[in-house]
Write a structure and sequence with these properties.
Radius of gyration of chain A: 24 Å
Number of helices of chain A: 13
Oligomer: homodimer
Strand order of the largest sheet of chain A: 1-4-5-9-12-11
Structural class of chain A: alpha+beta
Largest interface: A-B, 75 and 75 residues
Distance between the termini of chain A: 43 Å
Helix content of chain A: 25-40%
Strand content of chain A: 15-25%
Shape of chain A: globular
Number of strands of chain A: 23
Chain lengths: 603, 603
């Protein structure tokens, strides 16, 4: 199966088109402004001197690179001279300040010159990777190749220092990213050297001297150094690093037909999906190391679930899809898009979560009442910018490139992976999707010069109707009829349980409606959400809510009644209570509030 | 109501007599040996020089003092020359090394001389208090007054430095204890000065310069400095410090008829019992500050529940009883004795828990798989000695003085507070309790020269039968009949729920049978205890277990069956499972195991 690029796809209207418009009109500018305020833009002037304010951080290059990449995707669909000028301003500075030998890094030029490629965890290759992705996107959007040329020159510098002269003090990057970026460079330029470089960084991970711990408090698993990548079978360590690596592994496996490498990707993908992923798609159970932990270890309140990790899982799943015409990959992408990734940005498009827990108890932030320090818990309101501000521009580039995830193809079959109102045009082929999804499950598909359409049947859907003959295979309905296809996925609230090995969700259920996982907030319910119980016999009302641009649900549930005593004989007394649930991604948009995804189950 | 002293009471046989014998024959010697090994005994020679091994810690005096106190209670009931010699050896060293002005403290004489009474958190007055309690106990047991004289001299030194010359650099102790000890000195010697001193330390807490934070990371609540004690209404800060203070407050309120002080004690007692106490009686929800936290904040796995805190709550409750002929106080003492306090010592009497959590998941000790550090969780096996080894000798003195908690009196009424096979002899009054409690609920009581017996009806008991007329009042059954009283408390497993404001116990129940709270361990059940569910319709089998010297229970329950998927539609499929439960206090006596008190409730 081949992914179909955003370049062949236009969103027409609906939920995601609205998100894209907000992204183009608000988010891209807001992120730019905050990056400007914090000195990230002007840092490209390379004028920092010791003692100055706004000392560049070693990951600032990547923040701006991701912003450029997002802006480039926007420019692909519409002209925006102001936006383009902003990019050109930065690109000119990159060209001007790139060293003669091709090296480009703000921090290691103006803050710690002479320390180039000496510290494995200082994100130089990570920054390089993001700059390359941005350069490719900008070239594809505008045809301008100045930035791409700079990055080709930088890639040569990296090849020289890591692969030829071996002057770098480490072999593989502490934070993966360059691997998948080099494959993008390869696909854009057809220069096979970049693919070889990607393969080099992948092949050398977890072997030789790089296996040593490179950060005092972490171990080899933190940066996926514990084994040679082909021997890795489980997802370990920093979740974003991990999924960027796995994405790069997929790319190299695909381009080099490396079955062993693909087999490792598949084992790891299954390990994540079957044992280490929150129902929201969130990845990373611990803030310590921002990491995967153990199988089935999914605490809700302290969940890290970095926004970038959900985005990186979209990248990973989208690459896995190429090897296997199975709907699981698009299912995961849907889960991430509507939940884990989307929660990262506020409904007004201006502020962001880095961490996306599945439970908030405001009280617990003052748990240790007799100490001065607060407990370490995720923040409860989104912010416009962070010191480590990787997530905001990652959201921006994701939303601007949504077209990447809707369609794919395999010979004469066009696969419909996401139900987004859009038009695909590639060569003489044309597919149009019309839908209000996720508001309802009705999807209409028209095609021209396409033999077969394969429609993903979402894993949450128990019942659907199609107006044509179809063949069901690995989660896709294959339809060869020429008439307009009308498919209707029955949407109703579903009670979802965790595998019983997930300790934190025992005796609890989550609510899903369509692709959205729901949560409850105190602002709609009572203060202590753990007093509420959901009944096994679902009785609900549905209501479209403009604020969330989605349906909110009202369930007949219960509130536990207890005596004033701290402990008492079990009473089994509950009072009726209408529980209002909203899509998880919309939490924390109406002030601070307690929040809960997994509800007590009265089974 | 007056407490009746252990000096008037002898245990005859049964559960607690066995515990006392183990304490006399094993624990007292084992604790001594470990204290000897670690240098605590020889430290009393005052021969430490800088650079030597086994540098005395500033709380070592108190460890040995509590050990002496326990040994003294043992000597009260039986002659043991070897034990007495060990005490005399230490007492001689105390006399020898006490400074001329009465000051006695190992650390501030040999390690930091010249720093006497300069650091409020260095436990000098706490050590002094424990030495005073020990001196009183040893005098009462043997009539030997050398130790008591030393402590009277030390008390004068303290009076001089704190109350007369005010040369001490602080006003009240950072760790309370001396308050209640001074009242013991007063009652033993009839010297009212000691009561005045106790009142001084209580009256001055939370006022003046002592309000300032004295430890960098804690706030005023940590050592109960946040308000003058009479204005305190909630239990705050370090749980052991707190309950030692509250005990001292009770003592002073009782001796000085201070209604305002008693009112504060009552409010605080209710705050603990109604909002901050684990079902095991455990106190202190956080290891940070070993502290009370917020109302209803009772996490199970990270519960601190220091053994000493349960013991200190026994002291507090036993003192509260004097003001109020209500069974709640003896109920709490029962809860602590059979659960929170008893869990602190192993079944073989040799090793100890400092922390007593209500849940163990061994896996969670390696939760952060990509870091070198382990998570901070309570240890899972008891140890023979700790660096801070306050709990082992506290257990020893508690078990040796159990006679303190069985009876109390008010005019012509003798109150039966605990159902322990024993004999009370005081003046011409005599009461004999015969019972196998807690193995069953049958209790026989004979009396001589006693008008009325008041028998506590345990709060867990829904049904009981008495062979005599009785009047029920505030939880006691008053009986004036002269024949042998036979009372039978119906014992059956009870499902207990928490107040619905306790987040961690929502949709869960605990099992209680008689005074014991039960837990389940993996060694008797499956690995993942949170897969098990208890049914609302209790079906059980009872079996006496010699190892635990108590009944173990087998319940008809369920194990949740789920698919291999991480998330799936709720299934409501369970398989039958026999859940074996043991008394909580016996947990962790058969190797490392997962453990759970609060079980999923299938209601």
């Amino acid at each position: 199966m081949n992914n179909i690029s955003y370049r062949n796809v236009n969103l027409n209207k609906g939920y995601w088109k609205d998100k894209q418009l907000l992204n183009e009109n608000v988010t891209i500018n807001s992120v730019y402004d905050r990056f400007y305020d914090t000195g990230r833009i002007e840092a490209f002037k390379f004028e920092y001197k010791e003692g100055d304010d706004k000392r560049p951080h070693f990951f600032w290059d990547s923040d701006i690179a991701k912003w450029i990449e997002g802006a480039a995707y926007i420019l692909n669909n519409k002209s925006d001279k102001e936006l383009e000028n902003k990019i050109d301003y930065i690109v000119d500075l990159i060209e001007k300040n790139q060293l003669d030998d091709g090296y480009f890094n703000i921090y290691f030029t103006v803050v710690e010159p002479g320390k180039r490629f000496t510290n494995r965890d200082c994100h130089e290759l990570y920054c390089a990777g993001h700059l390359m992705e941005a350069a490719v996107a900008y070239f594809e959007a505008t045809g301008k190749d100045k930035f791409l040329k700079c990055m080709e020159k930088y890639a040569e510098c990296i090849e020289r220092e890591f692969m030829i002269n071996k002057t770098a003090k480490f072999i593989t990057p502490g934070h993966e990213e360059i691997e998948l970026a080099l494959v993008k460079m390869y696909r854009c330029t057809n220069n096979r050297k970049y693919l070889d470089m990607a393969k080099f960084f992948i092949d050398n991970r977890g072997v030789g001297s790089d296996v040593e711990d490179f950060i005092k408090c972490f171990n080899e698993k933190y940066a996926q150094n514990h084994l040679p990548v082909r021997e890795q079978k489980t997802a370990e360590g920093h979740a974003v690093r991990a999924c960027y690596l796995y994405s790069g592994m997929c790319d190299v496996a695909y381009e080099t037909k490396d079955q062993e490498l693909y087999a490792a990707c598949k084992e790891i993908f299954n390990d994540i999906v079957n044992k280490k992923m929150y129902i929201t798609g969130g990845l990373g159970s611990s803030h310590i190391g921002e990491s995967f932990t153990m199988a089935y270890d999914l605490p809700n309140e302290t969940a890290y679930c970095e926004t970038c990790a959900s985005i990186s899982m979209i990248f990973f799943a989208n690459r896995m899809m190429r090897f296997d015409n199975n709907s699981i990959y698009a299912d995961i992408i849907e889960r991430e898009l509507y939940n884990g990734a989307l929660a990262g940005v506020s409904l007004d498009g201006k502020s962001f979560f880095y961490e996306n827990p599945l439970e908030i108890n405001l009280n617990n932030h003052i748990h240790n009442t007799s100490t001065k320090d607060k407990d370490r818990l995720p923040i409860t309101q989104r912010l416009e910018v962070f010191d480590c501000s990787c997530c905001p521009p990652n959201i921006t580039r994701l939303l601007a490139s949504l077209g990447d995830y809707i369609y794919s193809e395999d010979n004469e079959v066009i696969y419909i992976n996401q139900f987004i109102d859009s038009k695909l045009e590639k060569d003489n082929k044309k597919v149009i999707i019309e839908t209000n999804y996720p508001q309802d499950g009705l999807v209409k598909i028209r095609k021209e010069n396409v033999d077969t359409i394969a429609i993903r049947i979402p894993s949450w859907c128990n019942h659907f109707e199609i107006n044509s003959e179809y063949e069901l295979k690995n989660g896709y309905a294959y339809i060869s009829s020429n008439k307009e296809i009308v498919i209707n996925f029955e949407m109703k609230p579903l009670l979802i349980e965790s595998n019983s090995l997930v300790r934190n969700n025992a005796n609890k259920v989550a609510i899903q409606y369509g692709p959205f996982v729901y949560c409850i907030e105190s602002v709609d319910n009572c203060d202590n959400l753990y007093q509420l119980y959901i009944d096994k016999n679902i009785q609900y009302e549905l209501e479209f809510d403009k604020f969330f641009n989605a349906n909110v649900l009202k369930f007949k549930g219960y509130k536990k009644v207890t005596s004033d005593k701290l402990y008492d004989f079990v009473s089994n007394v509950y009072e009726d209570y209408i529980i209002k649930a909203i899509p998880y991604a919309g939490y924390a948009n109406r002030g601070e509030s307690n929040m809960l995804v997994w509800l007590n189950y009265k089974g």
